[in-house]
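Let's study a protein:

===
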Amino acid sequence: MTSGQVTGFLKSSGSIIRANSQTADIFIDGKLVGQGEVSGINIKRNECITVQVSEVGYITQIKEFCKKKGMPSMEKTEYIAMPVDDSFEASDRSDYANNDIVINPKEKNINTSWLNAIRLITNYFDALEVNDNDVRYLRTAWVVNVFGNFTIRSRLIFRLTNENPLEYRFKLVSERARGEASPREDEKFKAWDRVLKRYNPLIEEVQSRL
């Protein structure tokens, strides 16, 4: 769907909504009506409409326009600018996010391979929340990064899953919450299918060096 007119709201003349991206989805009262630009918008007397402009990589903008006294009216052309989502810019979409990755280490001695893993992981995560050498289970503390409208928390889980043949699994947990949030506020965070770019080398090193 590209720029155009909205049936039901529109006449041959009317206001224009224009986004700062030609591929941004424009919704009126929850209905997708176009991308980038929509023209011919007319609001009935004493009524309001809710406009939402969304695109991946940007912060969604929602505005209300009315034809009521004392309420925000719509200009002939309404330009709606979506700020860039900084968390999107600082991350990459990754199939590794929140999924177990199997590692068959080159070093077959369990003590040595475990120590090598700890050394590698602590290059990227300073604090270990759990490090059980008996069962070979490691979980880092959350690392929190705030990007304006979102808070990202990341941690790594590394565990022994088989001794013969030797097998480990690691999982890079990546979650996002709206606004500022404490890493302890679990209810605010949801699994995120992206990984902060700072951890890309870690994924490569775990797979190639262990």
